[in-house]
Amino acid sequence: MIEALQFEFMRNAVIAGFFASLICGVIGSFVVVNRLVFLAGGIAHAAFGGIGIALFFGVPYMLGTLGFSLLAALIMTAVVLKNKSRADTFIGILWAVGMATGIILLDLTPGYNVNLISYLFGSILAVPTSDIWWMLGLSFFTIVSTGFFYRDLLAISYDDEFAKLRGVPVNLIYFLFIGLIAVSIVILIRVVGLILVIALLTIPPYIAEKYSRSLSKMMILSTILAGVFNLSGLWLAYTYNLTSGATIILVAAAAFFISMIFDMFFLKKHPELT
Q1: CA nearest 18: which of 147, 177, 139, 120?
Q2: What residue spans define the domains of the chain?
Q3: Helix, strand, coil % (nearest 5) of the chain?
Q4: Is the pLDDT of residue 207 over 90?
Q5: CATH 2.40.160.20: does it fit domain 3-273?
Q6: Which stretch of DSSP H or E encloses residue 95?
Q7: In the predicted model, is pLDDT for residue 272 greater than 60?
Q8: pLDDT digits (tens, 9 = 90+) for 38-58
Q9: CA atoms of 49 and 68, how far apart (whole Å)
Q10: Average of per-residue pLDDT values in the chain
């Protein structure tokens, strides 16, 4: 792996993996604690509609995809806040419609033959410097906004009714952070792919939650785990000539199952360690 860093594309991949880990570690913890995984998946798949719009109408990728994803995210959030019992159905519909719209528009785009696999698994080994700057900016904004709203996020995540009694603007905070989730997904899809975004948003925080006693520690551990999965996956992909995005996902999945086995056979015998 060390010798691979002599290549610029590998250095960019490692840097992109670091920023992706940071973003997903922080945002993913909020997603997992608030049981918003299906919502995040809906936004990620609906983003396909924005990709199709951007390419079909010839508008910049970031403008078309971000605009469509934010609109879908705001609609989904409004439904979740108004009627949680039926939110999964509505999210599933937007999920399917967004993805189908994007695929049809890509089919209709003149002279453009898109490889959908590149959007599913990304091209972390082909990350340009411009995308790294986008990720740097998003990482900075994520840390600042999370630090600023941390107490409110903590209150909302564990007891939103109590948060309302404390005067926390619960709905506003939800909208702001769902919007941040949408922005994160849009920026990361082109880099690491839709499936890897969902994996990094869910697997590291899920594992970290079981071994953390606070939301802040969960975010830190989740970021570290995501970084380990990224580096391990990149090393395996480089060594054995595998697809990097898929390899990273399988490394994360292996860690997920190992943690489950550890919980079943070890923590049950030593509950004081939890």
Answers
A1: 139
A2: 3-273
A3: 85, 0, 15
A4: yes
A5: no
A6: helix 87-108
A7: no
A8: 888 888 888 888 888 888 888
A9: 7
A10: 84
